[in-house]
């Protein structure tokens, strides 16, 4: 019989992980519910954001055999995050303008943008490989060290920081969507494009903002997740997959569905890892997703597809 | 004319490239069936390819005649398509795309495992299959002479697949297919079984994609996990999109363009993927209708100008 004290840690780490999944998935669902486009480069944004922070943060005294020398700025993590996220935000907006906008107007937008964003992801990944090398890199500094123990439970400070930052970002996002003009505009476009246009909302700007914001969220998640593990050019694909599963599971266009799904998937994954194997975690998530899809083809709380 | 090609052109590397183009064309034709004619954003095209390829390779290795293995392998591929389509009854658009993607990733996870003996025996995990026996019908090994025999086999298979596809598209089933793509609700009110159409479409497409996969696997003599890479998915996708979604010959044109390009780019070494991605991106932006689609429109415009004078 499994020791009951073993059953609690997966729940805790599931909550932390779930918050990070939520960040990723939010970006994806934001983009899809407004522009109706699936961003295959989401994982690449995840990776790129992490690399920029790494580049800014690593002191020049450490050589990693990369094409580009480290910036030597050795900025503390909290500072380095800001330009990294902003850069990816701009890149996201640029991507939308340059690639998504012209394709959405033509035929088969879902499929052509899939190819385009997949191509972009390939480009970004190869740039990262050329600059930083194809291998795994470690961050020079961690967001936090040490652990907290409480009656047999262990949680690292790093996990705590991840959780807190993720939650703050998620809450900020919610406030933005509910209270600010741009946020409300985005929700309007997601609900009913024509009505939004009639209300005078500049949909082009909304698209740009949505894409940029989605990318930025991926970048934040990228930095948080890779910081305590490792970073490599192909590190973005698994988070992308998970984001997809979460989004399908929770239902496109539903913020609460996405949130709920993130935590469920993360917690299930942690328990599967406990009882079986880490590599089964993803497969189980997939099977769970299929099961849900058969009963509720729009996910838990998905909106009706137009 | 094509049959005479080997005697006209210089043999060698060209044959090799052409065989690959033929194989990819078969796959592209049927991927286009799903993407362009039925309008399903199917992201799991590597699965039937892999099922066809791996099962053919395994069967050939344990002694089955390679050509027979090809047929059996393709049948398994069709089975995988059938299996895939069954839970998809109520999935639309985005959800179908994501389901197919995750299905492919799940499949990838399964076959790369080394902890399940049955799976490992067939798929060989990270090692992949190599030393797959060659076809030796007629008393010689088919891979010799740059695979000239494979060229003819591929040509035959392509013609067969194209013929079957044409019959499908021109039949009542073909009309039903397009109905599902263009006006699903209306189609269902007309009594078209949407689900049945999709299941058949997936099964038939998977069959021929499996044929392509088995064919190429026998030609290469090996198969590994790298075929499930995203760069391969990109290749298949762009072949159809760049060739022209929903056009009959589009994928073949796409194969003729992209396969040589892909092979040519290998000389760029580390820069290969970058240039490749950029090239595809550019083409998709410039001609989202695809090459054949664009050509078709140009032809129509010219014809219109002539007649309205």
Description:
The complex is a heterodimer of chains A (306) and B (309). With 306 residues, chain A is mainly α. Chain A has one domain (4-232). Chain A is 70% helix and 3% strand. Chain A starts with 7 loop residues before the first helix and ends in an 11-residue tail after the last helix. Chain B has one domain (5-228). Chain B is built from 14 helices and no strands. In chain B, helix 3 (46-61) runs antiparallel to helix 4 (66-85) and helix 7 packs antiparallel against helix 10 (194-220). The longest helix of chain B is centred in the middle third of the chain and has 27 residues, at 144-170. The chains are: A mainly alpha (306), B mainly alpha (309). Chains A and B meet through helix 3, helix 4, helix 9 and helix 11 of A and helix 5, helix 11 and helix 13 of B.
Distance between the termini of chain A: 50 Å
Number of helices of chain A: 11
Class inferred from helices and paired strands of chain B: mainly alpha
Strand order of the largest sheet of chain A: 1-2
Largest interface: A-B, 46 and 45 residues
Number of strands of chain A: 2
Report the sheet with the most strands of chain A, covering strand number, pairing sense and barrel closure. Answer: 2 strands, antiparallel
Mean pLDDT score of chain B, rounded? Answer: 81
What's the overall average pLDDT of chain A, rounded?
Answer: 81
Low-confidence sequence ranges of chain B: 1-10
* Molecular shape of chain A: globular
- Structure classification of chain A: mainly alpha
Multimeric organization: heterodimer
Low-confidence stretches of chain A: none
* CA distance, first residue to last residue of chain B: 37 Å
- Element order of chain A: H for helix, E for strand: HHHHEEHHHHHHH
Instruction: Specify the number of helices of chain B.
Output: 14
Strand content of chain A: under 5%
Helix content of chain A: 55-70%
> What is the count of β-strands of chain B?
0
Report the major sheet of chain B: none
């Amino acid at each position: 019989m499994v020791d009951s004290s073993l059953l609690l840690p997966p729940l805790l780490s599931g909550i932390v992980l779930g918050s990070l999944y939520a960040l990723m998935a939010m970006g994806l669902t934001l983009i899809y519910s407004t522009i109706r486009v699936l961003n295959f480069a989401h994982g690449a944004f995840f990776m790129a954001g992490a690399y920029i922070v790494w580049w800014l943060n690593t002191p020049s005294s450490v050589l990693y055999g990369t094409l580009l020398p480290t910036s030597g700025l050795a900025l503390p993590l909290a500072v380095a995050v800001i330009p990294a996220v902003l850069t990816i935000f701009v890149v996201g907006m640029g991507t939308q303008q340059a690639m998504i906008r012209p394709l959405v107007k033509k035929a088969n937008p879902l499929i052509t943008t899939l190819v385009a964003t997949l191509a972009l992801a390939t480009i970004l990944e190869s740039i990262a490989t050329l600059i930083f090398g194809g291998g795994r890199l470690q961050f020079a500094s961690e967001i936090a060290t040490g652990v907290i123990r409480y009656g047999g439970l262990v949680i690292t400070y790093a996990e705590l920081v991840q959780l807190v930052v993720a939650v703050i970002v998620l809450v900020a996002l919610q406030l933005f969507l509910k209270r600010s003009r741009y946020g409300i505009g985005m929700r309007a476009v997601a609900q009913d494009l024509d009505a939004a246009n009639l209300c005078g909302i500049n949909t082009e700007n909304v698209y740009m903002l949505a894409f940029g914001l989605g990318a930025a969220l991926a970048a934040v998640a990228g930095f948080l997740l890779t910081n305590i593990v490792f970073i490599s050019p192909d590190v973005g694909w698994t988070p992308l997959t998970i984001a997809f599963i979460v989004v399908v599971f929770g239902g496109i266009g539903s913020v609460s569905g996405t949130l709920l799904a993130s935590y469920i998937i993360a917690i299930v994954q942690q328990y599967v890892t406990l009882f079986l194997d880490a590599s089964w975690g993803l497969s189980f998530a997939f099977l769970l997703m299929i099961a849900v899809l058969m009963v509720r083809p729009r996910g838990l709380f998905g909106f009706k597809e137009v | 004319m094509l049959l005479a090609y080997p005697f006209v052109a210089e043999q060698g590397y060209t044959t090799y490239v052409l065989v690959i183009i033929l194989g990819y064309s078969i796959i592209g034709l049927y991927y286009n069936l799903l993407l362009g004619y039925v309008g399903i954003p199917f992201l799991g095209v590597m699965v039937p390819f892999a099922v066809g390829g791996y099962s053919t390779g395994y069967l050939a290795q344990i002694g089955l005649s390679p050509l027979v293995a090809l047929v059996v392998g393709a049948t398994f591929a069709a089975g995988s398509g059938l299996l895939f389509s069954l839970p998809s009854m109520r999935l639309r658009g985005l959800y179908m795309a994501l389901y197919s993607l995750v299905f492919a990733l799940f499949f990838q996870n399964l076959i790369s495992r080394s902890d399940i003996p049955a799976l490992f025996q067939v798929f060989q995990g990270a090692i992949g299959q190599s030393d797959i026996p060659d076809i030796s019908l007629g008393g010689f090994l088919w891979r010799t002479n740059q695979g000239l025999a494979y060229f003819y086999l591929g040509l035959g298979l392509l013609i067969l697949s194209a013929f079957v596809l044409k019959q499908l598209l021109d039949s009542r089933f073909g009309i039903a297919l397009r109905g599902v793509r263009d006006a699903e609700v209306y189609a269902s009110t007309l009594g078209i079984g949407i689900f049945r159409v999709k299941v058949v479409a997936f099964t038939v497409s998977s069959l021929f994609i499996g044929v392509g996969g088995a064919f190429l696997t026998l030609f290469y003599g090996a198969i590994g996990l790298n075929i499930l890479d995203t760069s391969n998915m990109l290749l298949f996708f762009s072949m159809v999109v760049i060739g022209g979604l929903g056009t009959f010959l589009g994928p073949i044109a796409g194969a003729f363009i992209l396969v040589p390009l892909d092979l040519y780019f290998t000389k760029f070494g580390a820069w290969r993927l970058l240039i490749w991605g950029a090239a595809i991106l550019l083409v998709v932006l410039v001609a989202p209708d695809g090459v054949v689609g664009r050509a078709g429109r140009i032809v129509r415009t010219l014809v219109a100008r002539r007649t309205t004078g």
